[in-house]
Write a structure and sequence with these properties.
Largest sheet of chain A: 6 strands, mixed
Number of helices of chain A: 17
Shape of chain B: globular
Order of helices and strands of chain B: HHHHHHEHEEHHHHEHHH
Number of strands of chain B: 4
Oligomer: heterodimer
Helix content of chain B: over 70%
């Protein structure tokens, strides 16, 4: 008997049919992977399983009994715990408070702080992070630390079914190993896991079976996670065969005679030191390095969002005043930040307003905005980027991750920038939309924009860039044409610190 | 590819500050302001300021607004605001002093005052939580209509308390300390325990800090919010008893501007208007700062106009200082 059986789930939001007949069976003790492009309905399905959304139609069967999940409490009572992708933590509370939020360790309503802290400490130790103390404030932990807390919270429920939405998105290698070890322990105890990830290699490592969603429907289910060929999975997700992600490597559009962005001896205490390089028109320079190597800080300093302690940034030969975003934007620099939801987008405003944000002056006369022109230009840029749906009036929050990223790119496209700084542009973006973003980045370079690209995925850096800088602990260890580099070679520099 | 992302271990586990000491630097600064004000009192009126009767006066004046501020702290930590507290105090004070209510004796007066406060608070809470009315608007409506109802019931007349038992108890002393001050201390202590040591308090912080996370964690967010406004209303009912005892009458003009004084006290006490963070100790110091300030002006026969200017300046300075303190702790 299946632990959980889902039949014909339908969920409609105003204007969107997010789920349109989803079937899923989870057996006891299995890791069931959910695959699907962004917007395929994975997140909505999770929210249905966790009781956060009530489905419009369909049946849920839990251990053979039909159930209806009216609220998160119902799901937790059955034994379904969920670890959300959006880090659903309360920043002002401590680690222990967050872990036991909603099921506090208490007697007669009085919280038992020491018991909660002791249990929290045990959970963090089990996750391999005794360094995260129960009394630490969650808002001060790094993204990875917060993700671990969120995982600890899901574990604290002693659930029969654990739903994990991209649990490794913010985790590094060691932490991923820890996570997988714990998933192994749980499944050995008979706990089932519904696992969502964009990383196919993770499916191969821990998954038992795979269900593929496309456009809110189950298009493949019960597939073997280890043996089903990647091409088949991708074909199911895309509904078509995707050509190799990095087509033939472009020869480069770099115009070596025209330096656009010149960075000289840029330093910021504790973050990076003495970084110098030049990006030419049409050139893509990739930065490879670990989280914490100073990659994002470097981009933000070039953009003026952080003030450099020393060194220069110049665009088209003109030096920028340090720590001045306005000057950077005026000089033609655009930034697509790592945290696009919190740093890049006005989630509750229409796409058009997001797109014209950096060039509002152009759409205003005496302070009044020219809304028709705004919609028209935004619409044009959406069509150029193939952002779907290409409706400039659509609220950004309702778009999938890949399309949200396109909206950020559209902003700088409309402004017409000279330098584009891309920080993890494909994070949380599915395979199909990734290929489109890659094509876009290439096109932008071809049109003469100088591009800097930060990514945790080395093949992405190698595939897109003309030149690669390897950053380690704030220092540039290598600056080479990407043509001669291999993933192993770059990894070697990153991990060993030798510029061999 | 995952092993390309290994950040240094320190990136995961950040600084090891003990949570318990988190609010200290700010509270110390605030306590410093209070000490300076007291010293100013001692210097300008050495013969009067640190006398038993003056301190008792200060605390009795602080009592009503202090109790209201305790409720306000709950509401603001939960991410809301309550503009109606002063009006609820007025309505409660009027309702518990009508001839009809007084005819039933002191116990009914007390229960009536508390019930009216709690009821008004729950109405606010239900509007905010279940009706999805923005707290500012819901409590603004209560602010207007509760005082209107108070005027209607009292006919804008002052309703003198005839019941001697009521007055004797609430105006009396217990172990040499006025009952009003005991009540203030009791409400404050209970409020502190509820906020810091119970699931109710924990969830109040959680709902204010991240309402969606709280909902997904299985907290009944709506019921919780409704109850938080109920707590604020109950505090107003208690404050109404105190005001009636102090002035020996109920009137629709009671509790004027309490909402502003309470919000000011809570805010200078370090509670964030955005919710999720705050402390009752800070609120207590905030209330005392304002009461001592007005006592200083009274003792020195200074104009109340200047007093209000000083109040405004203190609010701004306190908030600016807290901002600095926060920045210094979290780094640039």
């Amino acid at each position: 008997m299946s632990l959980l059986s889902v039949r014909g789930i339908v969920k409609t939001f105003p204007g969107v049919r997010a789920l349109d007949g989803v079937d899923l069976d989870v057996e006891p003790g299995e890791v069931h992977c959910l695959l699907g492009q962004n917007g395929a309905g994975k997140s909505t399905l999770i929210k249905v399983l966790s009781g956060a959304h009530r489905p419009d139609a369909g049946e849920l069967t839990w251990q053979g009994e039909p159930v209806s999940l009216g609220s998160p409490v119902d799901a937790l009572r059955l034994g379904i715990a969920t670890m959300y992708q959006e880090l659903d933590l309360v920043p002002g509370l401590s680690v222990a408070d967050n872990i036991f939020l909603g099921h506090e360790r208490a007697r007669f309503g009085f919280t038992r702080i020491s018991q909660a802290r002791a249990e929290a400490a045990r959970l963090m130790a089990r996750l391999g992070h005794p360094g995260i103390r129960p009394a630490d404030e969650v808002g001060r932990l790094s993204a990875a630390g917060q993700q671990l807390v969120s995982l600890a919270r899901a574990l604290a429920h002693d659930a029969r079914l654990l739903v994990m939405d991209e649990p490794t998105a913010a985790l590094a290698g060691e932490e991923v190993d820890n996570l997988f070890r714990i998933v192994g322990e749980l499944t050995a105890d008979g706990v089932s896991v519904v696992y969502i990830s964009h990383r196919l290699e993770e499916l191969r490592r821990i998954g038992h079976r795979v269900t593929v969603l496309k456009d809110g429907r189950t298009v493949g289910t019960g597939l073997d996670a280890r043996t089903t060929p990647t091409a088949d999975l991708v074909a199911l997700m895309a509904g078509r065969k995707v050509e190799t992600v990095f087509g033939p490597r472009h020869d480069g559009h770099a115009d070596r005679t025209t330096p656009v962005l010149e960075v000289g001896a840029l330093s910021r205490a504790g973050e990076f030191e003495d970084v110098s390089f030049t990006v030419h028109a049409g050139e893509v320079v990739g930065i490879a390095g670990l989280v914490g190597s100073g990659r994002s800080e470097l981009l933000e300093t070039i953009f003026g969002a952080r003030k450099a302690d020393g060194g220069t940034v110049a665009v088209d030969g003109k030096a920028l005043s340090p720590g001045n975003v306005l000057a950077a934007v005026k000089a033609g620099i655009g930034l697509a930040p790592e945290e696009r939801k919190s740093q890049g987008l006005l989630l509750d405003l229409p796409v058009a307003h997001n797109v014209t944000l950096a060039s509002l002056g152009r759409y205003a006369k005496f302070g009044f905005t020219d809304r028709a022109k705004e919609l028209e230009d935004a619409g044009a840029s959406l069509r150029r980027l193939d952002l779907r749906p290409a409706d400039p009036r659509r609220i950004v929050r309702t778009l999938s991750g890949g399309n949200q990223q396109k909206a950020v790119l559209a902003r700088w496209l409309v402004r017409g920038c000279r330098v584009l700084l891309l920080d993890e542009p494909t994070r949380g973006v599915d395979v199909g939309a990734r290929a489109e973003l890659y094509r876009l980045i290439d096109e932008l370079a071809a049109s003469g924009v100088a591009i800097m690209l930060v990514s945790s995925e080395i093949p992405e850096v190698l595939g897109l860039s003309d030149r690669v800088l390897v950053l380690r602990e704030g220092r540039v260890l290598a600056d080479r044409p990407s043509a001669g580099l291999t993933e192993a070679g770059v990894l070697d520099v990153i991990l060993e610190g030798s510029a061999a | 590819m995952t092993d390309t992302e290994a950040p240094p271990r320190k990136a995961v586990a950040t600084g090891g500050r003990r949570f318990a000491f988190r609010a200290d630097p700010r509270l110390l600064g605030l306590a410093g302001v209070l000490v300076v004000l007291c010293l100013a009192g001692q210097v300008t009126r050495p013969e009067l300021f640190f006398t038993e009767s003056n301190i008792s006066t200060i605390l009795r004046l602080a009592a009503a607004i202090g109790v209201v501020s305790v409720g306000m702290t709950f509401v603001i930590i939960s991410g809301g605001i309550d503009l109606s507290v002063g009006s609820i105090v007025a309505l409660s004070s009027v309702w518990l002093t009508t001839l009809a209510t007084q005819s039933y004796g002191p116990w009914v007066m007390v229960v009536c005052g508390l019930a009216v406060g709690l009821g008004c608070g729950l109405v606010n809470g239900v509007l905010v939580a279940y009706g999805k009315v923005v707290p500012f608007i819901a409590t603004l409506a209560m602010y207007i209509s509760a005082r209107g109802l108070a005027e209607r019931i009292s006919g804008r007349r002052t309703q003198v308390v005839a019941d001697q038992d009521f007055l004797a108890f609430f105006r009396g002393d217990l172990l040499g300390i006025p009952v009003l001050i005991w009540l203030f201390a009791l409400v404050f202590a209970v409020g502190w325990v509820v906020l810091n040591r119970t699931t109710f308090g924990r969830r109040t912080y959680a709902v204010g800090g991240n309402i969606e996370a709280s909902r997904l964690a299985g907290i009944n967010v709506k019921r919780h919010l409704a109850l938080v406004y109920g707590v604020a209303g109950l505090c107003c009912g208690i404050a109404a008893l105190m005001v009636v005892a102090r002035t020996t009458a109920g009137a629709s003009t009671n509790g004027m501007f309490y909402e502003l004084d309470a919000i000011a006290a809570v805010v200078i006490g370090g509670t964030l208007l955005t919710g999720g963070r705050g402390s009752l100790i800070g609120t207590l110091i905030g209330v005392l700062i304002f009461t001592v300030l007005s006592n200083l002006f009274t003792l020195n026969n200074l104009d109340t106009d200047i007093q209000n200017i000083a109040k405004g300046v203190i609010i701004v300075l306190a908030v600016l200082l807290q901002f600095r303190a926060r920045k210094a702790r979290t780094g640039p």
